[in-house]
Amino acid sequence: MSDVLTTHNLSKRYRKHVALSQLSFAVPEGSVYGLLGANGAGKTTALKLLMNLHEPTSGEAQVLGVDSRRLQGRHFQQIGYVSENQDQPGWMTMKYLLNYLKPFYPTWDDERAAELVAQFRLPLDRPIKHFSRGMQMKASLASSLAYHPKLLVLDEPFSGLDPLTREELIEALLESEPESSIVVSSHDLADIESFASHIGYLDKGKLEFSEELSSLTARFREMEVTLQEPALPAPWPSHWLRPEASPAVVRFVETHFDPDRTIGEIRLLFRGVTNIEANPMPLRSIFVTLARASQVAA
Amino acid sequence: MSPSLTTFQQALHVFRKDAREFRLEIAGVLILTLLLILTGVQSWESLQERGGPNSDPGEILGVLLAITWSLLIARVIQAEALPGDRHFWLTRPYSRTSLVLSKALFIAVFLNLPLMFAQAMIVSLDGLPLFSNLGGLLWNQVLITVVLFLPAAAAAVLTRNLAQFVPAAVLTVALMAGPVNEGKVSALGALEWIRSSLGLLVAAGIASAVVWRQYRRRQARTTAFLAVISAFVGIVLFLGFPHSVAFAIQSRLLGSHEGQFAVQLGPAAPQKPNSKTLNRYRQLLKLPLLITGADPQNLHMQSSVVTFKTLAGVTRRARADVEPTPQGWQILTYLDRGFFDSVKNAPVSVKAEYYLTQFGNTRSTDVPLDGTPVYVDQVGQCGTAPNWDQRILVCRSAFRQPRAFFSDRLASSITGRSLQSIVGSYSPFPAFVSVHPVFARTYHLAGEEEKELAPLAPERPVTLNVHDPVAYFRYTMDIPNVRLADYAAPEAPDDGQ
Lengths: 298, 497
Hints:
The complex is a heterodimer of chains A (298) and B (497).
Chain A: E1 3-14, E2 17-28, E3 32-37, H1 43-50, E4 58-63, E5 66-67, E6 79-83, H2 94-101, H3 110-120, H4 133-145, E7 151-155, H5 163-176, E8 181-186, H6 189-195, E9 198-203, E10 206-212, H7 213-219, E11 221-227, E12 240-245, E13 249-254, H8 259-269, E14 273-280, H9 283-297
Parallel strand pairs in A: 3-8, 3-9, 6-7, 7-8
Antiparallel strand pairs in A: 1-2, 1-4, 4-5, 9-10, 11-13, 11-14, 12-13
Helix pairs in contact in A: 3-4, 4-5
Chain B: H1 7-21, H2 23-40, H3 44-50, H4 59-78, H5 96-125, H6 134-157, H7 162-180, H8 192-217, H9 220-239, H10 243-254, E1 262-265, E2 282-292, E3 299-310, E4 315-324, E5 329-336, H11 337-343, E6 347-367, E7 374-376, E8 380-387, E9 390-398, E10 405-406, E11 410-411, E12 421-422, E13 438-445, E14 462-483, E15 488-489
Antiparallel strand pairs in B: 1-2, 2-5, 2-15, 3-4, 3-6, 4-5, 6-14, 7-8, 8-9, 9-13, 10-12, 10-14, 11-13
Helix pairs in contact in B: 1-5, 2-4, 2-5, 4-5, 4-6, 4-7, 5-6, 6-7, 6-8, 7-8, 8-9
């Protein structure tokens, strides 16, 4: 499976502020790549660099085999970009927008467009500027899915939307798989978890990890160790995060879980271990753990 | 699967979208253009009834149109704004070439074409020949595009919205003010067109470069910085544009063959007793020029500097003007009082440099006095009109001021004395920058008595002699042993033209 998008040491600096540092990751064809991070982590900057809306300070990115700095009009016939910050042509009605965009795309699918409009219950004759925020996102997504893009880039598409609207958007996105590879940035972990196949985590402009969701959830475990004599060992391993100790129990998050190695390591560091529990973590807990660890480190 | 749009098809597609989006604004422009026709037309009959041409026809509408055009250009370009990263078109399959083409097409169709139509209507309804003024009609569109549309487009591609556009446009207008004022501000006199044309060329170059760079690279800050720096350099060069360069260009265009005539200092005119208090700081000198070998009416002189040098080697350089007199020409200059008083009776050498235009190919046309207009070649439609208790000569031409002509019946409106010749711009171009296409000038006519303005029923017709500039050169006159006291003239407000 080839990659539809790769970045290599992609960096962006605004005067003294480093918005993105040495970003390297790849998005395999047909995957849904969730780019996670707190507000200000650099997700939007990364996506704007990929869409050639900004020029990188250094590094490079290949989008559908094209250097992102050379990305221009015709390349967007295969790319869809939906962003919460995008200014839409508000004077156009939905019907006019679809009719206007259609000639730009050789792969435009009238049936798919009609389906999406119906699915999103979008009024065709009302100017887009009179749409609610959720409807505007739906309109933007409908106009981007109607031409079956090879790559769909979504910047915080679910931000501020009600649960029903989110569900509708996600449904439409899932329908567009596998013909479209999707990159979606969000801090809304629950939504990403439900459909992302790959996850990248950005923190203060740096990519902390980038991997398949299944391997990510497999390597994160909330560990609960019951002891006869509670005590935190020193030195504490760096891949064990958020340590908590109560009279007989020590809890922490193992970021590189491997049943044999982790248990062996625990038995080596703690005396009088009576019980070890390894609980799988939802993505939200993983994200919170990493974010807090980052705050502590800072 | 439908085929991709070609560049031109995409331009048309965007053009249609813009036409729909800005239909109300377009309607506003068309209404103003219609008003320009309705208020700008003045038939010869209505000119007669009014006693002269409308004062500044279309000026207010012209300003209104310029503002409306600029705002419409800004709106249509900012529909796909170039600065910023939020606009939807940036991630859609737009071709930049198509985008530029669509905007250019929009300007041509909704701004240039209606204006051309309005100007053609006004010229025709005013009674001026349209066909022979087609060059002016087209050239005027080029000028309006260079002076207004292109700078407005340059300001628009650097800004995201009207709030940003307006200050940028005001700055652009300020930078453009110099080159645009050809025919109004004329430090170089009839040669001003050279400086203005070069200024406009530079302005067009800068504006085009801004538009090109923005559509190619979308780097608003850098582009704006480069544009402002270039504009300031251009302004410095414009303001410091030397007369000698204008002369060199003009003489190259017209030719500068050796004159078949000589210019000498004439005898001092008898001075009237001067009862006025002497000016304590300066002395006016009038140096008459005797021209032999050429009709003074076929010459136009413009002096740049006069140098006075005493036997002791003391020199003074003074700026000088040259004005026509019934006998020929005279140099007017001022000397500082101290220098003049110390050398006025001593022999002084006078060296005068002036620029001289020689006219030829004189054609004469009689303008009847019954008010019937006559079309005078290269001057335009000329005729007389009653104006209170006098009769005036009115000449109207399309797209530029009437060319140079002379007549013994022209009079100064202030003194009533014969004015003899009218010199316009030497510009070879068929149009000036103007929204209203008709330029009108009125001239007072001298009556039978030299100092009387023509009564309502003058006896003889007005003969206009039109001539073309055929040579342009610099002439230096070096005359030794001049007694300046003989040429001193009282400085009085009623003594000049």
